[in-house]
Structures are given as structure tokens and as C-alpha cells.
Amino acid sequence: MSLSDLGIDSSATILMVDDESINMEVIQIFLQDAGYSNFILEDQSTRAMRTLIESKPDVVLLDLNMPEVSGIDILTEIRNDQALKHLPVLILTSATDADTKMKALELGATDFLAKPVDASELALRLRNTLAAKAYQDQLANYDALTGLPNRDLFVDRVETALKLAARTDCALAVLNIKISRFSEVKDTLGQSAGDAVMKEISLRLSDCVRDSDSMTSEGEESSQRLARVGSDEFMLLLPSMRRTEDAALVAERLISSLSATIKLETSEVAIGSSVGIAAFPNDGDDASVLFRNAASAASFAEQSQGINYQFYSEEFNQKSQRRLQVEGQLRRALERNEFTLNYQPKVYVETGKMYGVEALIRWNNEELGFVSPVEFIPIAENAGLIPAIGEWVLREACQQQRQWQLAGFADINVAINVSVQQFHEAGLPELIGSIINESGADTSRLTLEVTESVLAGDVEESIRVLKELKALGPKLSIDDFGTGYSSLSYLKQFPIDELKIDRSFIIDVETDHRDEAIVSTIIFLAHALGLKTVAEGIEEEGQLRVLRDKKCDVYQGYYYAKPMLAADLEPLLIKDAQLAASA
Ligand code: C2E
Ligand code: MG
Ligand code: MG
How far is the CA of 452 from the centre of ligand 1 (A)? Predict the structure, then answer.
């Protein structure tokens, strides 16, 4: 049986440390016969340690008795060195007394061989030692599930490639591949389905890398340039590229290979991916900087709609810095009482009487000033801060509704926005139920607004949550309708009361026939399903006229009033009540 059949690399580097060169030469001949070819002979044992570190041997054959330095000392030094402590050391000694053996073993010798050395026994011991090391290396350097290199090994590879690239003036790129929705797959389908999906992902990526090789470097084994570096994160090294743009082609291939659904025994799952690219020398000249930049580019792609891959750039570095800053401040915003709620009237198109208000959060931070919810709500979602902020909004808005009830404005409906992440938070219905109870709010005068994108995901799950929310008594409204790709055929199954037509269709509704057609259709559809329509963002008389023609029920917009503090709204409420009384 050959060495490679045993999983042993015959190119293993064997370092021999012995004061007598003749000994080493004899051993070298024995080992050459056994198939090995890489040797380093060291007769100046005082220099051994330095040679050791520089030459990165796979095994050391160490003579125990040398005149200048004791083999035991070298062994001790090896075991105390962080980088070398797992290196296999085979002791060669003519001292066969039990004490010496014991001592060497205690100090971590891997095995023993008596001098004069027997050729076949030497080959056998060495083979076993290297087989054990190969197994250890496999465990330490490869991901057990996919068999791909892990982060540690990948770092090594990139560092080596960087040195070469610097010498040869070549470009090199590191790609970070983030898999989205993997943890959801694992949570819903279980660990073993998750494992199967992950294996399939790694196979597809490996295939892609192999196919892409013609465009990049030759020689090196392609699968070795791909690594699994986190539970849902991979990295790919593209060494010696001709042009950095080639990395974009590779990224496109990777993404497209992962876009096809993955078939499991009983189900089918869709995952997504985002790729970030950082190149040497432009985006960094050491592995850790390149990794960080590739990862931040991938996060950027992940969080930007419609972008699948992204080159690292200073510009979005600034954007992500801003994001980090916002996130940092956001973490303390609640305890510092930096949030307030504004309320914007929702008004009947027909009568001009107020139907209710929508609660809209406002954040004024001492360092950043006023930050729009359009900016900070998505950041809060990503940072896991939405449950706490959402709870604050619910409590505040319910208390306000109670106040208005007590002040005699009992009819006013208060709408509260529920974010996607909040919607999927376990226990949301219970939480809302208890907040309503505590506040004494009238649930029939509450509306929960969820964006249409909530409904685009797992439909069964959305229906279940919506039903639980509905059972608490509030009205349910679909916000930003027309932008979220929800399936119309499901719409009738959702227990909803209201569709809010997204502002983007309203802006040009007077002049653009396509927008007008969309708005007409939404209103028609809503009425056919027994739902009320609310037009968002009415700023002009003309827009309102079009909506009146089309029998839209309610509108909201600067034309009637901008969002404002509850106290500022009171005069409007009083006027509105008088209007109703005189009608
Ligand atoms: P949305 O729920 O669709 O809210 C309507 C947005 O349109 C509000 O922006 C409102 O100020 C704005 N708007 C109303 N009328 C007009 C108009 O005539 N012209 C223009 N140009 N804009 C108008 P705002 O307050 O900046 O909120 C933006 C988004 O942030 C909201 O969109 C909502 O998705 C989210 N948001 C706001 N407050 C909360 C909250 O308490 N919780 C959650 N989860 N999201 C919130
Ligand atoms: Mg809303
Ligand atoms: Mg909206």
C-alpha cells in the first residue's frame, strides 16, 4: 500500500535533529526508500528551534543525546511554543532505560525508536505518526459537515497567497458569501434538514469555484480556496486575478448557483445569498483587513434591496459607519427617553371628518440630532432592538388613546405600525393583549398596520399570527400596499380590514395614467373584498379629487395635516367634533 492510500502526504517535511550527520543520512536513505522526499537535516542542535519555526515541518525526528544541547530541552521548548506544541516528535535514542523514556513521554514525545534504527520499524512508526497528524489536521482545519477548510486554514492560505501576490504584483480578492434565511430553515425544518441544506450549498459553491477557475489562477486545487467560516458564511479566495472585475463574474455565478431551490426529501427550500468583495492591494494588505472589508461589503449587499454582491468601497464604509453610529445611539435611546410619538390624521375622503390618527415614532438624539424612522427602523430591526422599541410605541399609543377617550374623543382610531421583525416575534399577540388591558385602551378603536412584505413570506404563518391579533379586537391594515409583492390570491385569506395605498402611486396619480390605473385597481379590489382603502401621502387638492372620484374611503397626508404631537392635535380634534355636531 502506498502512502497516499493511507491518507498520508508523501511530501510531508521531515526534520531531523542529530549531532551526527551520518545518522541522519542513513535515516534519510531508509525513508526515501519508503517514499518520502522532503528532508531537513539539522546537526547544529543549538539552532534547531529557529529552523523548526521557519521550515514548518510535519514531524521531527529528534536525537536525545547531543553534546551541546539535550534533546529533552528541545522537546520542552517545542511543547512550550504555541505554534509548535502539537507537532509530532519521534525520539531516537540509544538510551533505552525506562527513566529516560518515561521522562520524554511525560514531556510530550509522540513515540520512541531505539538506535540503531531498524528501517522497516522506522517507516512504520513514521507512517502511524503522520496518519495521526493528518487526522488531527483534518479535525483542526476542516469543517466537519462540509469538509471545506475552516477559517484558520483559510487565513493561512490567504496569507500565503498575499505574499505571492505582493511579490508578483498581482491582484487578489477575498469574497465573503453570506447565506440568508439559513437559520430559519434550520429552525423550522430541524437540524438534520439544515445539515442537508448546508451540504448542498457547499457542493454548489465548490462546483462554481471549479468552473470559474479558467478565469483565475491555474494549478492550485480549487476546492481548497473555498472555506466555511461561520454557520451561514463562506469565503472564497481568488488569487492572482488579472482584473478585479473578474471577481464580480465569480460572485454572480455563486449567487445564481444558490438561487435555485434546494430539494429535500419532503420539502423544498429557498435560500438567498449576498457576496462582498475586497481586493488586495486596494482594499487592504493583510488578511484580517480584507476579511473585515469583504464581510462589511456582504452585509451592505444583504441589507440593500436589489443588490446581490458589492465591492468594498470607502463610500459605503462611511454608510456602514453611520449605521454603526446610529445603532450605538439607538441602544440607549429608550433609557434616555429620546423617542416621542407623532400623530397624523386619517380623514374620510367624502366628509372631511377625521377617522383616526396614525402614530409615527420620532427620535431626537443628542449626538445625531433628528433621525428619520425610515433610517433607524431597519437598523433597529437588524440590531434586534425592535421588540423593545415596538413595545414602547404600543404602550405609548394605547395610553394616548385612553387619554383621548377620557377627554371625550372616543371615536378616534389610533393606528400603530408593527414592523416585520416584531410581527414574527413569538408572543406578540399576548404582549399586545396585555398592553391593551393595562392601558385601558378601546381595542375596537385601534388599528395595527403591517407592511405588505410581512405577507410575502410564510403565508400560513402570517395568517396564523394575523388571526391571533385580530382576535384581540383591533382592525388590521396592510401598509404600503402595492410595493411588497404579496400574492393576491392569498389576500382574501388574511383577516384584514384596510389597505393603505402606497404614496409612490399617489404622487403622480393626476398625470400618470399607469399610476391612476393601479390606484383604481387597488380600490376596486379592496372594495370587492370588503376592505377599506386609505391613500397615503396626499399633498394636493388635485390628488384628493382623483381619489374622491375613485371612491377611496380615507386619506392621510400633508394636505390635511402633518404628523404632530398629541397636544398639538387637540385643537384639530375639537374642530372635528364641532364639525360633526353641526353636520
Ligand atoms: P408609513 O407607516 O407608511 O408612514 C407614512 C409615512 O409617510 C410617514 O413617514 C409620514 O410622515 C409620511 N407622510 C404622511 N403624509 C405625507 C405626505 O403628504 N407627504 C410625504 N412626503 N410624506 C407623508 P415617517 O413618519 O417618516 O415614517 C416612515 C416609516 O417609518 C413609516 O411608514 C413606517 O413604516 C415607519 N415607522 C414610523 N413609525 C413607526 C413605528 O412606531 N413603528 C414601526 N415599526 N415603524 C414605524
Ligand atoms: Mg404606517
Ligand atoms: Mg405607508
Answer: 14
